[in-house]
Amino acid sequence: MKLRNIAVLGAGAVGSYILWGLRNTPDIRLYVISEGERNARLKEKSLTVNGERLSLNVRTADELRDEIPEGPDLIIVAVKYISLQESLSDIERIAGDNTLVMSLLNGVDSEQIIKRVIPEERIITSLIKIASQRNGNSINFPVPAEGMGVIYGAETASQKDYVNSIKELFDSGEIVHHVSDDIRKDLWLKYSINISQNIPQAILSSGVGIFNKSQNADFLRTSLRSEVIKIAAHYGIDIDVDDSWSLDPSNGINPAARYSTLQDLDAGRRTEIDMLSGTVVRLGHELGIPVPYNEFAYHIVKALEERNESKFNF
Question: Domain tally for the chain?
């Protein structure tokens, strides 16, 4: 299966990396799907990635459906988790019977949400590990270190041909990517690291290097992650492994890096805390597994959002 028509839903940091990485890929047509004011802004200003202004094919979902009635070969979902529910109608509208879908959202349940409108067999479980710095419509990515980039894999034998088609597409572009032998484990492992690093640094308003400098911050990190490990274990997924590589400056980790939750708070935006600690709290309650650190962290970040929204200023 040759993937020729590629639609990227979302043009934030993740979507921009995909658009940049596939920009010079031969024999494909690359689209970015956006609506309303965002659509107009992308058409007018485009995106600048690593100093290069991209030439974008910007479409609304209806425009793409008219242009490709059979649907694109691949939809890459790169919206924020908080926008996924409202994006389902766009995904359903543009997808055809043979369209594959990859979700690069943080978290462990976006595929479960997308399967409300797309057959599960055509959803390829995936994740992305990449750092970025954004200033307006300009985004910069360092060269992803070993083990970083887009990671994806088949969960059933029948998905292996689909995964091979995606690999062929990415091989022909500049996206750093890896095919996983256990994508569900990799998804949960990344989820545990996201929670354990994003949330404490957001609360403390500090770069990720804080965990190598403060035993107190590192205690919060390991305590949050230990609760995710227990939840994953209930589903038969063992993620109780050494994660020190994720904080090692020799792996290209910038100690000043501010991850997505803190970036959102800095910019006055709503965070993805519902997908992060919020999901852990929900699952903990459902499974009877205590998760006090994630419950506390959830409410702290929610209070910080309220402060940004001027619900209190004293």
Answer: 2
Q: Model pTM?
A: 0.90
Domain, as residue range, for 35: 5-181
Q: Is 291 helix (H, G, I), strand (E, B) or coil?
A: coil
CA distance 256 to 33: 32
pLDDT at 145: 61
Question: Which one, of 171, 191, 175, lies nearest residue 183 by Cα?
Answer: 191
Short-list 65, 71, 76, CA closest to 101: 76
Q: Given 139, 163, 181, which residue is the final one in a domain? A: 181
- What is the longest distance spanned by two Cα atoms in the chain? 59
Q: Which residue has the tokens 């993740």?
A: 14
Q: What is the DSSP letter of 157?
A: G
**Phi, psi (degrees; rounded to nearest 5) at 305:** -60, -45
- Token representation of residue 276: 């992060």
pLDDT band at residue 252 using 50, 70 and 90 as cut-offs: low
